[in-house]
Amino acid sequence: MTKWYIGVDGGGTKTAAAISLEDGTPCWTAKRSGCSYQAAGIEAAALTVAESVMECLASVGTQLDECAMCCLGIPCYGENSEGDAAMAAELERLLAPAPLYIVNDVEAGWAGALGCGPGIHIVAGTGAIAFGKNAKGETARCGGWDEFFGDEGSAYWIGREGMSLFTKQADDRLPRGPLYGIVKKQFALLEDMDFIKLVRRQIAPHRDQVASFQKIALEAARAGDETVIRLYERAAHELALMAGALKRKLRLPCPVNVSYSGGVFHADDFILKPLAEELADCGGILQAPVKSPLEGALALAIQHHKQKEGV
Questions:
Q1: Is the CB of residue 211 less than 8 Å from the CB of residue 155?
Q2: Rounded Cα–Cα distance for residues 87 and 108 (Å)
Q3: Which value, in Å, is the radius of gyration of the alpha carbons in the chain?
Q4: Contact 24, 299 (CB under 8 A)
Q5: What is the dihedral of CA 53, 56, 60, 61, to 10 degrees?
Q6: What is the pLDDT of residues 186-210, one digit of tens each?
Q7: Neighbours of 38 (CB within 10 A)
Q8: How far apart are CA 15 and CA 30, in angstroms?
Q9: Is the pLDDT of residue 102 over 70?
Q10: What is the C-alpha separation between 29 and 59, in angstroms, rounded?
Q11: Which of 86, 199, 247, 259 lies at 20 to 30 Å from 236 by C-alpha?
């Protein structure tokens, strides 16, 4: 029987799934909205994942009982034992009889970026989290605490801090840079104070909308706004703190490879350059990911199936 493997790379704002044979090369990719059960609820989040998996299976004309292993990288997984159990149960109900291997999405990012080898992987998307593994196979994670009081360095954090910078520029607490004009134009603000109502009604209630404000911040940085450029430097510092903590926890030798994934890194040198400099101070070497988190999820599916079978 042909062995099919499925990998899912979930996130707060997007879900991607792929199907492959044992070589790990995706034959089909499906895309859906985010699958954070803390944001969307258990049933909705699990259904999003299940629909992605079913689309992949249908693309090659196969079914759940012909799937050797599904690795599901789920955001927030491992942060709430009760929620994790409910999410796992719902996924098992929707995807039975396919065998499931459920991990936090940061682990899928690590598997793709570092080829399942020793090192540290940082995810900075809607939220921010890091995962590491040493040569002994010991693992640890850092960050991912919740956007209300954590997730420093994430798109949500940059978006929220970027909104604060706009208010400071509006007040002349900071020099007005490109951010001020970009926000005024983007939201057609007649008065600066109209920003309060806009944020309360349209942005703050929606995690993805707050995170999307990072794109406006990036536009301002590219236009030369020094306050926003420094914001990305602060984000890099926060992300480097997570890598440093994992290096100590796992007793990783210098130099340690540190890779990355997530939408924040679309800011290129605004985030990558200061991050590389911060990491160098604690014995880390920033390296571009070898493969995508989605390919990492497929690699974990294949690896876990082989371990289960004793291969």
A1: yes
A2: 18
A3: 20
A4: yes
A5: 50
A6: 999 999 999 999 999 999 998 889 9
A7: 18
A8: 8
A9: yes
A10: 9
A11: 199
253 burial type by CB count under 10 A (0-12 exposed, 13-18 middle, 19+ buried):
exposed
Q: Which residues, including other chains, have CB under 8 Å from residue 25's CB and lie 6 or more apart? A: none
Written as six digits, the tokens of 98 are 């396919």
**CA separation for the pair 264, 125 (Å, rounded):** 6
Helix H, strand E, coil C: the string for 111-153 is HHHCCCCCEEEEEECCCEEEEEECCCCCEEEEECCCCCCCCCC
Token output for 236: 């890099």
CB 49 within 8 A of CB 8: yes
**Token pair of 228, please?**
């926003």
Contacts with 140 (C-beta within 8 Å, 6 or more apart), sequence order: 131, 132, 246, 249, 250
CB count within 10 Å of CB 40 equals 17
pLDDT digits (tens, 9 = 90+) for 18-57: 999 988 888 888 999 888 888 889 999 999 999 999 999 9
Backbone dihedral region for residue 251 (phi beyond 0: left; psi -120 to 50: alpha; all else: beta): left
Number of residues that make up the chain: 311
Question: In b/e form, how buried is each residue of 124-158, taking b as 16+ CB within 10 angstroms?
Answer: bbbbbbbbbbbeeeeebbbbbeebeebbbbbbbbb
